[in-house]
């Protein structure tokens, strides 16, 4: 059981531990907030650039992100000690071509399909679909022989899928093309994670930022080929000037900061806090999409997404950790004060109440938008 938990953590975190630094004196809550802020900002920013700003070049945007990440990691490698752990990775040209480039190809596909989905689907619906990532990853590990099929996990995954199916049928702006793009991105990401897990089972131990150091150049090269054939012929410098150089720089910089925040976060918190933070981030993105973009979310979608999130939390934490969280909650409610976990429960309660208020406001706005876009009878 302990080995399975270790494998799960390795698959999700890249088998890495954060490097020890002066930042260890900062409270872990800062890293949680930073990661949620960066992750949410990247998604909302990309949606705004591609849809609201009408910059209809998702392949170019993905390529630009990878080029920027390549430049930044090269600068960090030459001027700081942040990436010194890369020297422990047994990397040469044949190994890079054999191990890194294939993963870079699949990573490129996941990024391209993910960005294409923003042109057709709302952020809220995309986040709901992303709850099936664990299902796709689990099936991929079984398909590639990385793990033996487990009927209990299959049941758990089935709950997540059922919840997403319910939410999908309640989507008011459903688009089949966008749906297929997002599903393709999820499948590509699942395959990438399995390939990474297989790579890390050997002598390769890389934290997320070192991974970017190696993957970004390969992804940039692969994406450039797609961009050259599919988007460059219909692009002009006016498209870039109309969006703004500053916008492109800010967008790529925030995407890069997301990778930095992941490095800072890993090792600072427990698996329970990481899982709950991820669920909180997904809920905040759904609500933010309602408030910022006016994307309507129906009651059926709330129900389906709640079922999927419940299944997701149970899958990642398991019954024992959930019981520990429940026991800690009871301790807080009975004593009112105590250790750090009790304070964590207090924070979760406050955040939960805030999310309920935001969800009501978001649902009200979404309902108003839906009524305005529906022709009268």
Describe it for me?
The chain has 14 helices and no strands. The protein starts with a helix and ends with a helix. It is globular. It is mainly alpha-helical. Mean pLDDT is about 80; it is low at about 1-20, about 335-345 and about 370-375.
Overview in brief:
The protein is mainly α and 377 residues long. The protein has helices at residues 2-13, 28-52, 58-79, 93-117, 123-130, 133-143, 151-169, 176-200, 208-230, 237-243, 245-265, 271-293, 299-335, 340-373.
Q: What are the key terms here?
A:
mainly alpha; disordered N terminus; disordered C terminus; 377 residues
Q: How is the biggest beta sheet arranged?
A: none
Query: Into which percent range does the helicity of residues fall?
Result: over 70%
The string of secondary-structure elements, in order, is HHHHHHHHHHHHHH
Which structural class fits the helix and strand makeup? mainly alpha
Mean pLDDT: 78
- The fraction of residues assigned to DSSP E strands is under 5%
Radius of gyration: 21 Å
Question: How many alpha or pi helices?
Answer: 14
Tell me, briefly, the overall form: globular
Give the end-to-end Cα distance, rounded to a whole number of Å.
59 Å
Count of individual beta strands: 0
Contiguous runs where pLDDT drops below 50 for at least 5 residues: 1-22, 337-343, 369-377
